[in-house]
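re: ur question from yesterday

yeah so i grabbed the chain u mentioned. its 402 aa long if i counted rite. heres the sequnce exactly as i have it in my notes:
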Amino acid sequence: MISNEELEKIKILGIEFNNTNIHDLKKFSKTKITYYNIPSKDRKGFFDEEGVQSFKSLKIKKQVDIINKIKDEFDLCIVTSWSSARIAYLADLNYIIWFVGNDIRFPPFLKKFDFPTSKNHRYNLNVFERIFYKKIFDNALVCITGAEEMFEYLQKFRNDSIRVDRTIINIPKLVEQKKILKFKKKFTIFCPQRIAFEKGTDIIWKAISLCKNDFDVIQVDWIDNTITFSKEEKNELLKYKPKNVKLIKKIPRKEILEYYLKSDAVIGDMKIGYPNNIERESALCKKPVLSYNNTKMKFFIDGNKITSPFLPISKDPKELSILIDKIVESEEFRKELSNKEFNFVDNLGNPKKTAREWDEIFYRFSKKCKRISTSKKNLFLKKILFQIGFSLNLNKKEIDYF
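ran it thru and got these structure tokens back, copy pasting raw so excuse formatting
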């Protein structure tokens, strides 16, 4: 058994981009985590800024320079994206990659990828970039992910990977303690997910158009131009937006709890097959959540295989429309579903048990690598490979190493 005194001596450097996982883990871990965020104009206000240090520049060289100045203060580094892993690799660190989203489903070291939630199956990367990202992946101390589907996919590339299904659900507190009022008298469903085919927006909107009941839908107008969702796809999708779907601007992280509480129900992801952050947060607010559940995906909790209770268990818009109507019509059904989802997520997202799993991983790998710096002699070759690859990609003018 590792003592708290031993854990408290371990210093972890966390680097994150467009995620909040390390940020949330920091609040419960017994190790000392110093957190750096890579800035993004599209995700401003995405999470609570407390305890966060952000790079002031998007230039890779400046970000790496900052890490090089402070790296000897730490025992180990953890990252959750290819952007943050790139910094750790170029700074010559011993790092753990924690895959929390689509990053391992669409690895940039592959010329083509095959994943059913995306219509675009190709990266616009040259051979030098793909080699560079493969080296980032291979040089990680270990790669970690959760949920059965992602872990199986990760193991195709590294059979020494670790699976951690538990997660920390850290819902922000209300800025002011005030009475939460409903949006209107009409039943209101909240949709905080991004508008994208990979999130199942097409399925959701088709289902809403098939519903018999009258209700409002609050959809966050959040569209990222990514490898998996182009501007053309966005414009095509928006043609099919139902009239009762109202678009609202992106919500700052600190305000999202109020939207959960004001809503009567929440619709989440309709493609992935297991509950992500939005679904888990909504369930902890005891709101009935509709989100596609692939029942083949089990969760390993305390040595037991657990099946998620989320509905529907199909991506069929007709089935989703039936469930939406049932949610609107039946208070009994809403309570029954929300109770099942709450109990499942409350167990899955136990912060103390989750942090303990991670603390044991940090302890093991900090002992294994001894120090955060790898002290390898190929740092110059890393920089050259990076510069060649990215200089040949004219779409990345904002990235400049030297």
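noticed a couple things. Residues 397-402 have pLDDT under 50 and may be disordered. also The chain has two domains: 4-168+352-391, 188-348.
anyway ttyl
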